[in-house]
Amino acid sequence: MSAPEPEIMAHPARLKAVLAVLFAALTVAGGVPLFKHRHYGMTFVAGPGVTKVIKLSDYSPGLKGSFTDPDVFILEGAEPGGKALLMADTHANEPAGLLAVLIMIENTVVEKGTLYIIPTLNVSGSRNTKAGDGYPLYFDIPTDWGKVRFRMGTRDASPLESWPDPDVYIHYPEKQMLSYLDVRNTNRTWPGRPDGPPMERVTYAAMELMRKEKVDIAFDLHGAETMFPVTNCIVAPQKSAKIATLAAMTVKAMEGYDSHVEPSPQNFRGLSHREIGDYSDTLPFLLEAPIPFLDQPTGPKTVKLLLDGKDPFLLSLAGKKKLFVAYDEKGWPMDKRVGQHMSTTLEIIRQFSKKTPDKAIRLTGAPKYADLVRDGAGHYYRDPAKAAPDRIHYE
Fold first, then answer.
1. If we measure between CA atoms, which residue out of 104, 122, 116 comes closest to residue 272?
2. Do the beta carbons of residue 288 and residue 223 sit within 8 Å?
3. How many domains does the chain have?
4. 309: left (phi over 0), alpha (psi -120 to 50) or beta
5. How many CB atoms neighbour CB 30 within 10 A?
6. How many Å apart are CA 284 and CA 277, to the nearest integer?
7. Sites in the chain below the pLDDT cut of 70
8. Which pLDDT score is estimated for 342?
9. DSSP tag of 56
10. Is residue 25 in some structural domain?
11. Rounded Cα distance, 151 and 371, in Å
């Protein structure tokens, strides 16, 4: 005699209802953290040098009202001079650039010239994650007054903004065929177009800012794997190469960290350092600092690895000379990466100002590599609790 069938199994409708409830519960449990991450506002303070905050869509109406429209912080000097644009979070899983430009926003005062700073160029990517690789949703930087929390984003914009992806992305206007994912990559969609896919609209608006404001030099701050040859470097087209070379030589000699220049490839389209140079009068520079977190042969993708850059597998590979940067038990900490971005940016500005004194940019208050290594990045973030409400921003 067979055992009696459980009551729920004897009623298919009840079984379906129970499974539906379980599925809904799992969906909510998994979705709520992602929803909170997408809508989390990173808090920071506009320092004394910030004179205006606008939206990038002010330069291209096609961005207006979209989730992909970034803030632009403007720091104007009392004396006219040259103009520079700093962009971070082109790839939001390379956060050293974001930390560097926020330090500039909170501390820098421009005496001559103008700085335009876009902390999160790819807003959608900064609110997206890579769950399949186990990315943390947030990371904390210790400060003198507590800690400041940042979102950990990913390389590409979310499908929520860019769906559907094409089978092949055709670069505009060069018609080069790229990976379908590159339609969501803001370092493949330059120079963009006003009515194109969302990331093309972002890069087009940035191009319009540079063209309309007659920006002299532009920086795109990135991080690259230690196993990738284009790291610890300045990527520049021919028209920017002399300034880039002088800056790389100077920081290596005077500040003690390695840097070299990589030429911008002429036949690979969509890259900021290629298209900004080709489609405007602006001199572009892309800065790469090493980020062990992005290397494939590492342990778990933890906050600790993101911040200290220490990994036993990379250490083993370093001993076999498989890495393109010096690597030892000290790892490659975030403070060092942020410091490299700060000093390289400041040195390029100095070299440009020296070469074109009529368009010089002079600023104060920005820490350099040695300061960041000594004090830590968190030392340079202001306490929002002590700031005027109108100076607090949520990115």
1. 122
2. yes
3. 1
4. left
5. 10
6. 6
7. 1-11
8. 98
9. G
10. no
11. 25
**Tokens representing residue 71 in the block:** 């803030």
Q: Show Cβ contacts of residue 28 under 8 Å, excluding neighbours closer than 6 positions.
A: none
Type of residue at 126: S
Please list the residues that pair with 112 across neighbouring strands.
79, 362
CATH number at residue 111: 3.40.630.10
Bridge partners of 234, per DSSP, are 261, 287
For residues 56 and 203, what is the distance between their CA atoms, to the nearest angstrom? 10
- pLDDT for position 6: 61
Enter the tokens of residue 126: 């900064």
Report phi then psi at 153, rounded to 5: -95, -160
| Parallel, antiparallel or unpaired: strands 147-151 and 283-290 | unpaired
Peptide bond into 173 cis (omega under 30): yes
CA nearest to 221, candidates 365, 341, 384, 105: 341
Can you list the alpha helix ranges (DSSP code H) found in 60-122?
A: 96-107
**Residue 297's domain spans which residues?**
44-394
Q: Quick one: which of 260, 257, 230, 255 has its CA closest to 244?
A: 260
Residue keyed to tokens 């920017």: 240
What is the separation of C-alpha 54 from the centre of its chain, rounded to a whole number of angstroms? 19
- The distance from CA 172 to its chain's CA centroid, rounded to whole angstroms, is 23
Q: What is the pLDDT of residues 82-109, one digit of tens each?
A: 999 999 999 999 999 999 999 999 999 9
Domain presence at residue 26: no
Residue 245 contacts by C-beta under 8 Å, 6 or more apart in sequence? 261
Residue at 181 is within a domain: yes
Task: Look up tokens 């940035």; give the residue.
Answer: 206
Residue 107, domain member (yes or no): yes
- How many helices (H) and strands (E) would you count in the chain? 11, 15
Supply the pLDDT for residue 7.
60
CB atoms under 10 Å from CB of 244, counted, come to 30
How far apart, in Å, are the Cα atoms of 305 and each of 89, 187, 287, 301, 323? 19, 25, 21, 6, 17
pLDDT for residue 9: 55
